[in-house]
Specification:
The chain has 11 helices and no strands. It is mainly alpha-helical and 213 residues long. It has one domain. The termini are far apart. The model has no long low-confidence stretch (mean pLDDT 91).
């Protein structure tokens, strides 16, 4: 029953379609049909050309994740598994929104909100890696994908530190690994299409270089 309640809390909060509601009501735009079609902060900014709208979506989507984890802690106390489960289902519902035909965002803001509450170490690692990857290529999707993959690898190789800075403390390393893997895999899956575009663009660049040579 505890798991079911955690799942329900996370899923309902995560399923709030922030970007869709905000763009539809303020600009009359269906974000699913505009720009990249992604129901998230970056596409909200892109299609509205409004930093305020983009930032608002970002903060609310992060808040959904943070509130999911926080409520589970309020209900069940210092037991890592329940806020972790609530957080994962908030991310899943955000990415595959049941109210929008299972379309949604890419989960980064919501995962960040969950991590702020129960696993800030992961968020710090991800942000540092994102910054490095962004400097390398100046491409947001490249940075998102690179930071997501490398974060998982680094967490695996620094479990003692990761467990130390998790709150509440996980019952075992496997619980923390499962939370991290599940969240980052969901995010990676939502970035498969941008990854394909990046690969395609690189092939075009190489072909153009070969033609010039």
């Amino acid at each position: 029953m505890n798991y079911l309640i955690s799942i329900t809390m996370g899923y309902l909060l995560g399923s709030i379609p922030t970007a869709y509601l905000l763009l539809k009501n303020s600009r009359g735009i269906d974000i699913r049909q505009t720009g990249s079609g992604n129901v998230g902060a970056y596409n909200s900014f892109d299609v509205s050309n409004s930093k305020l709208i983009g930032l608002t979506v970002l903060l609310i989507d992060a808040g959904k994740g943070a509130l999911s984890a926080y409520l589970a802690i309020l209900v069940y106390g210092d037991v890592f598994i329940y806020p972790a489960v609530a957080g994962i289902f908030a991310i899943f519902a955000h990415c595959y929104n049941p109210w929008l035909g299972f379309s949604g965002g890419r989960g980064l803001a919501t995962f960040a909100g969950v991590s702020i509450i129960i696993f800030p170490y992961l968020l710090i690692v991800w942000i540092v890696l994102w910054t490095i990857f962004y400097i390398i290529k100046r491409d947001i999707h490249f940075a998102n994908i690179g930071a997501t993959v490398m974060s998982l690898i680094l967490i695996f190789n620094s479990l003692d530190i990761a467990i130390k800075y998790a709150n509440p403390k996980p019952g075992s390393a496997s619980t923390l690994i499962l939370f991290t893997m599940t969240g980052l895999i969901i995010i990676f899956i939502k970035h498969i299409e941008p990854l394909k575009e990046l690969i395609k663009d690189q092939k075009i660049i190489r072909m153009n270089r070969n033609e010039k040579n």
